[in-house]
């Protein structure tokens, strides 16, 4: 479980996130949704300790994020940031191999190599593994980054908009991979999603963020309602019953 208690971040006198109180259940997929600038990335990077907390505290599986040593935290939680400042002179295989760093300290064992191959394969990157990152399409590069994060094999995985740059087929595939990782390996996945319909279809729990606060949280069934979605996203949304659950329709 991830617990945020009275968490606050103040960027400036007029931009502040929180206070946020939130419990994210262990296991399954939790989607963070909400309009641009709501504070989703801020919350995710604070949970992953890439950004300091001004007030309050965060625990991940009962480890205090602020006081746990980085090398220990790296075996518990991994994160993909929204913007990747990638080094282009890395191959796909080298990038994915970075995921093993908390274990290998730069010396990859045979076991590490096996794990790297497994995730490369999992994301259909085998044919591209020796290509440099700047020789890939945006979607291929995005898959390589997610493969690197999953290769870290942490119980908690934070992904900020992993569907960026992916076409519909690859988005569906990515969500199925995440579903599998949660179901088969018991991972807890927290994912920022732009498209509420992907959240409704694949997430077990949805947390809606707006103006730096938690606006609503619940199961897809509880969140997928006309008034709730229209309020969260500041536009008229109508929910209809689709073949696999509820679908949000824009006007
Ligand atoms: P989201 O991911 O939901 O789009 P963010 O967490 O990126 O939202 O941003 C939340 C708010 O904080 C926005 O108003 C944004 O402009 C502001 N913000 C984000 N990062 C910084 C920063 N480094 N310095 C100042 N303001 C920031
Ligand atoms: Mg963001």
Automatic annotation (TrEMBL):
SUPFAM superfamilies given in the database record: P-loop containing nucleoside triphosphate hydrolases
Keyword Ion transport belongs to the record: yes
Annotated membrane topology: Peripheral membrane protein
Domain ABC transporter: 2-236
Localization terms from the record: Cell membrane
A GO term from the CC aspect: plasma membrane
Protein name: Iron ABC transporter ATP-binding protein
Lineage, uppermost ranks: Bacteria, Bacillati, Actinomycetota, Actinomycetes, Mycobacteriales
């Amino acid at each position: 479980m991830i617990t945020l208690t009275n968490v606050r971040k103040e960027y400036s006198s007029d931009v502040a996130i929180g206070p946020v109180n939130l419990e994210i259940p262990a296991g399954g997929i939790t989607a963070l949704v909400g309009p641009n600038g709501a504070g989703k990335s801020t919350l995710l990077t604070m949970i992953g300790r890439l950004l300091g907390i001004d007030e309050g505290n965060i625990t991940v599986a009962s480890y205090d994020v602020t006081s746990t040593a980085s090398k220990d935290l790296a075996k518990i939680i991994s994160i993909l940031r929204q913007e990747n400042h990638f080094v282009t002179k890395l191959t796909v295989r080298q990038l994915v191999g970075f995921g093993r760093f908390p274990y290998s300290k730069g010396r990859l064992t045979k076991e590490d190599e096996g794990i790297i191959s497994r995730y490369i394969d999992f994301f259909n990157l085998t044919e591209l593994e020796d290509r440099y990152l700047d020789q890939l399409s945006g979607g291929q590069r995005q898959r390589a980054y997610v493969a690197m994060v999953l290769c870290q094999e942490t119980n908690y995985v934070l992904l900020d908009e992993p569907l960026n740059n992916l076409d519909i087929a690859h988005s569906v595939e990515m969500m199925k991979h995440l579903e599998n990782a949660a179901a088969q390996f018991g991972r807890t996945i927290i994912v920022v999603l732009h498209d509420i319909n992907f959240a409704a279809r694949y997430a077990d729990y949805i947390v809606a963020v707006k103006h730096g606060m938690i606006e609503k949280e619940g199961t897809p069934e509880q969140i997928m309602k006309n008034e709730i979605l229209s309020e969260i996203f500041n536009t008229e949304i109508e929910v209809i019953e689709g073949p696999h659950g509820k679908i949000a329709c824009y006007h």
